[in-house]
Design brief:
Elements lengths: L4 E19 L5 E21 L3 E6 L11 H13 L4 E7 L10 H16 L6 H9 L5 H6 L3 E5 L3 E4 L7 E6 L6 H6 L12 H5 L12 E2 L2 H7 L2 H11 L4 E4 L6 E5 L2 H11 L8 E6 L2
Parallel strand pairs: 1-8, 3-4
Antiparallel strand pairs: 1-2, 2-4, 2-5, 5-6, 7-10, 7-11, 9-10
């Protein structure tokens, strides 16, 4: 951090539970999800620029630097609403795999809203930033909430989960992009009836009962596209995970372990069994 610029970590997320309850009139889907940030993070640096405009630079070859970039769209909406005469330059150093169900782009957008608002002293409240973010991406408000949450609506109605435990996990990401819109389009919609106990169980969450809440309604669609997801889940369970699931629309898969030591030991075994183009991370919830 320093004069004229700000630096932030932009964390990934996992969905411990993701229920898709129906399709909404606005084109989004009604969901209920248990979400947490994890330690895996990108690095965002934001600089003031006296010239009006938004400059995006990233070290990832598949991420655009213009209006197709979610960070650009978030910041443009913010500056337009503020009628600010200047501009910003934003550097994005990626570590979160893209199109993997980890929310990396939405996290980058949320952090950029927060940082630009602070750096340029625009004075918007967190609620106002969440409103701007929601108009760009359904899960951007979660990344401004900064706490584990139950997300409902299209993902923008957030309820705090008190006493959420620190959970150690191994994250495996196949070398394959799954795009949220494509996965949702492949989902055969029906109202889900067996979720009434989620509030009771999630508010008494611990390592012994965590498998009770694990669920992802998008998984069947994603597995049809990429069967490797199922294989990686089975590998994590075979190596001692208490539970394993896909995050978001995938293809990232995570396994939950009893402790940091157990997770580290399992990671060493698993990295010898996965493909050379698959990424593996040791992470924890935050």
């Amino acid at each position: 951090m320093g004069k004229g610029f700000l630096y932030y970590l932009s964390h990934a997320k996992i969905n411990l539970r993701l229920e898709v309850l129906g399709k909404r009139a606005d084109g989004y889907h009604e969901i209920r999800s248990v979400m947490s940030l994890i330690s895996l993070a990108d690095r965002i640096t934001i600089f003031k620029d006296l010239k009006k405009g938004i400059k995006i630079e990233t070290d990832h070859p598949e991420i655009g630097e213009g209006e197709d970039n979610i960070v650009f769209r978030c910041v443009k909406k913010l500056l337009d609403r503020a009628n600010h005469p200047g501009g910003v330059k934003i550097l994005i150093k990626k570590r979160i795999p893209i199109a993997a169900g980890l929310g990396g782009g939405s996290s980058n957008g949320a952090v950029s809203l927060l940082g630009v608002n602070r750096l340029l002293k625009l004075g918007f409240s967190k609620h106002e930033l969440m409103d701007i973010g929601s108009s760009v991406g359904a899960d951007i408000p979660f990344f401004l909430f900064f706490k584990p949450a139950i997300a409902s609506g299209k993902g923008d109605i957030l309820s705090n989960i008190p006493a959420f435990p620190t959970i150690w996990l191994i994250l495996i990401v196949p070398n394959f992009h799954l795009y949220t819109k494509d996965v949702y389009n492949g989902l055969k919609m029906r109202l889900t009836q067996d979720y009434s106990d989620i509030k009771i169980k999630v508010f008494d969450l611990n390592i012994d009962n965590i498998s009770d809440i694990i669920r992802n309604d998008l998984e069947k669609v994603s597995v049809r596209i990429l069967p490797r997801i199922k294989e990686l889940k089975e590998l994590l369970l075979a190596e001692g995970a208490y539970a394993a699931s896909m995050s978001g629309s995938g293809p990232a898969v995570f396994g939950i372990f009893e402790s940091k030591d157990k997770a580290k030991e399992a990671k060493e075994r698993i990295k010898e069994k996965i493909r050379v183009d698959e990424k593996i991370f040791l992470c924890y919830t935050i």
